[in-house]
Amino acid sequence: MKVAIAKGRIEKAARDYFEQVGLTVWPEKRGRELTVEVDGHEFIFVKGDDVYKYVMHGAADVGVVGGDILREKTPGVLEVVDLPFGRCRMAVCGPKERKNGTKKLKVASKYPNIAISHFASKRQNVEVIALNGSVELAPLTGLADCIVDIVETGATLRANDLEEYETIFTVNAKFITSEAALANNPDELKAWIRRLGKEDSQ
To answer: How confident is the model at residue 198, as a pLDDT?
Structure first.
């Protein structure tokens, strides 16, 4: 089975949890290798934004990715297990001293679809600026009035004199697959799903 894993924070948490529930895991120190084969399973390490693409296009049977990415992209994959790690929240954040005015609010985000949907639900007319880098810079430089971003500990916000205005939704990691993978390898996939969902069933 081919397993796509989001590199970075989720990768470490996923390895710990896989080991905890008795699934095959990759070496803790894998170096610079982007693919590792262990006990007949191939682990593929990619950027979080790319995990669902590998699964959707059949290059991986399953994947582990943050729920924020799936909410933003709404890809054609199956979310089969809510995983008990990668927990954080999607939030609206900005300067502690909020600007009051009648002008259209400018919102910077790496999640433009989520930002547009959130403010539309509040019937608030905003201009959303899509960014790929550190969105915390946007209100500090005057590019935007506030941001929509993932918050875990809030340390980055505090370091830049920003605060959380409101939580949009909570986020955790997801175990995903595709209809094709489930049809081609149902027994092994269902066994993995049962193990990964073990904590939720207790």
So the answer is: 65
| Residue 53 one-letter amino acid | K
The secondary structure of residue 21, as a DSSP letter, is: T
Query: What share of the chain in percent tops pLDDT 70?
Result: 96
Cα 40 vs. chain centroid, distance in angstroms?
A: 27
- How far, in Å, CA of 153 to CA of 172, rounded? 14
Alpha helices in 28-185 (DSSP H): 48-56, 67-73, 112-121, 137-141, 155-159, 179-184
**For residues 8-15, average pLDDT:** 94
pLDDT in tens, 66-76: 999 999 998 88
Give the Cα separation of 116 and 52 in Å (integer): 22
Degrees (nearest 5) of the Cα angle 68, 47, 45? 120
**Which residues make beta-bridge pairs with 95?**
162
Residues 6+ apart with CB under 8 A from 57: none
Q: How many CA atoms lie within 13 A of 147 on its CB side?
A: 30
Parallel, antiparallel, or unpaired: how do β-strands 173-177 and 78-82 relate?
antiparallel
SS (H, E, C) 88-132: EEEEEEEECCCCCCCCCEEEEECCHHHHHHHHHHCCCCEEEEECC
Residue type at 8 in one-letter notation: G
